[in-house]
Structures are given as structure tokens and as C-alpha cells.
Amino acid sequence: MRIESPPASGIAGVGLRQIELSDRQDWYEYLRLPEVYERTSWNVRSPEDLNPMFETYEATSGTSARRLAVVDQATDRLIGTIGFHTVSDVNRSAEVTYDIAPAHWGRGLATRLCEAVTAWSFETYGFVRVQATVLVGNERSERVLRRCGFRHEGVLRAFRMVRGRPGDFNMYARLASDVAR
Known about the structure:
- It is a single chain.
- The chain has five helices and seven strands.
- By secondary structure, it is of the alpha+beta class.
- It starts with 13 loop residues before the first strand and ends in a 6-residue tail after the last strand.
- α4 (109-125) packs across α5.
- The chain has a domain at 14-127: Aminopeptidase.
- The model has no long low-confidence stretch (mean pLDDT 95).
- Strands 1-2-3-4-5-7-6 form a seven-stranded mixed sheet, with helices on both faces.
């Protein structure tokens, strides 16, 4: 689903906008890096493998996935993405997902963006629950979620296939009723 009015990133020089097909090559370039690939369930072998994702972001259903491009405002080049999938209107919930190019790690971008977008989703979409699943071993992402007020709820064994093998994932969640940090 297209996001016409994304939240402000709150980070100098970093903007949020709807992800576009023109971002595909930049997205692929960092998703294929071992330091990203090994800690996620991504399985992309070419930029074209991302095409179905872009089709879902153009869908108009209220339960469609939503994804924003995280861009360097000086160049409008993609440096990451953040958004929601597994959106449920009935349960008023969604799963947040994000990725940042390794060249931009260590600056607090993921934490600040996750915090901003999660708070925005409670207000804009009326979600009561935002959850996140993290491949066991991805400690960086777990730290991001904990800093954003997400609580660990347990391990989902063999939850999602990771390049042909069942992977265990940690489940985190934050409720709209949780006290803000």
C-alpha cells in the first residue's frame, strides 16, 4: 500500500518516502552483502528477485504491505527501508521490518526510524500491536527493538524458511498502550 504522508525521520539529512522501483538496485546491492544476508531471511540472487515486493507495495488493500525508502536527502539515494507486512485490520496489528545498508550502521538510524515509524503507525493506522520477528543470532536487530520499547515474547521455532532451511526467530512486540520511553 502506498504511503502518501510518511512520518518525518527526525534525523538530519535522512528522509522517508515511498519506496519506488528505481530504488531496486541500491536495495539489492546491500541486501546481498554477507553481513546483511547472514542475519536475515532474505534470499535475493538478483535485483529482479525484489520485483514481487514492489508489486505488493502498490496494492490498495488495507492489509497490503507498506514500505518506505530511507534516503540520504542530499542525493535521494536509498540507504535503507522500513515498513510493515502481515497487516491485520481485524486484529489492528502488523509486523515491522527494516534494513539499513551496512555503510550506515552504528549511527542509531535503525533505532530512531523504528521508534518514529512505530509511534506513527499507532496514530495513523490505529494499530494496537506492532510485532517483529528476528532471526536468532541477529543481536543488532534485537538491540534496536529493545531500545524502542519492544518486549521479547519468546522463540518461534522453525518459524520461517531461511534459504531452504527452517529458521528460529525471536518474537518481539510493542503495544500502543505500552508506556513510551
